[in-house]
Amino acid sequence: MSICHVFYKYALYCLYKVRQFIRFEEVGKRDSYRDTFIPIPVFGTSTYFCLMYERKIPITLDCGLDLIGEVLYGKWKIRLLYFINEGHKRPGELQRKIPGASRRVLTMQLKELEQHELVTKVIYPQIPPKVEYSLTEFGKTLIPVINTLGKWGDKNEKRLRKVILKRFK
């Protein structure tokens, strides 16, 4: 057993022992570290372990509002659902409809919506790969709620703008 292999095993053991609120994710050298705190190189290998943030406050799912908040929490999720329902199914189309969001954040939120079974992702086997998103039947049940929220926002636009902008003065 080489010294690098021994160090690798010891590093994994130490990381496992100190991981109270932190999980360690194995990533390649060339992966993005923007969402990590500290890259920890494991010597003698091409593997990096990165400290990833984990939730410190436990999830409470006591009522419907908690459940909705957990599923729809995210700056762009409601807009993503709305635009997918409107027929914008490709990631590039969604990016153009929401220019303030980065491609990475949109991809993460689409993945979360997929995990919550609100959208489905279809990957077509062609070069270059083609990806399309569509609402599930469960996801379609949210559209009337999203439309109602939008109408409420339009109805109270002046007051909401005033309250929001007052906070930034």
How would you sum up this structure in a few lines?
With 169 residues, the chain is α+β, with helices and mostly antiparallel strands. It has helices spanning 3-17, 64-72, 77-86, 91-97, 103-115, 137-140, 143-155, 157-167, and strands at 22-28, 39-41, 47-53, 119-124, 130-135. Helices cover 49% and strands 17% of the residues.
Broad shape: globular
What is the CA–CA distance across the termini? 63 Å
Low-confidence stretches: 17-39
Extended strand count: 5
Strand order of the largest sheet: 1-3-2
How many helix segments?
Answer: 8
Strand/helix succession: HEEEHHHHEEHHH
How would you describe what is shown here?
The protein has 169 residues and is an alpha+beta fold. It has eight helices and five strands; from the N terminus they run H-E-E-E-H-H-H-H-E-E-H-H-H. The protein has helices at residues 3-17, 64-72, 77-86, 91-97, 103-115, 137-140, 143-155, 157-167; strands spanning 22-28, 39-41, 47-53, 119-124, 130-135. The strands form two sheets. Strands 1-3-2 form a three-stranded antiparallel beta sheet, with no helix packed on it. It has a two-stranded antiparallel sheet with strand order 4-5. The radius of gyration is 21 Å and the shape is globular.
Task: Summarize the topology.
Elements (H helix, E strand, L loop, with lengths): L2 H15 L4 E7 L10 E3 L5 E7 L10 H9 L4 H10 L4 H7 L5 H13 L3 E6 L5 E6 L1 H4 L2 H13 L1 H11 L2
Antiparallel strand pairs: 1-3, 2-3, 4-5
Features:
169 residues; alpha+beta; 3-stranded antiparallel sheet; two-stranded antiparallel ribbon; 5 strands
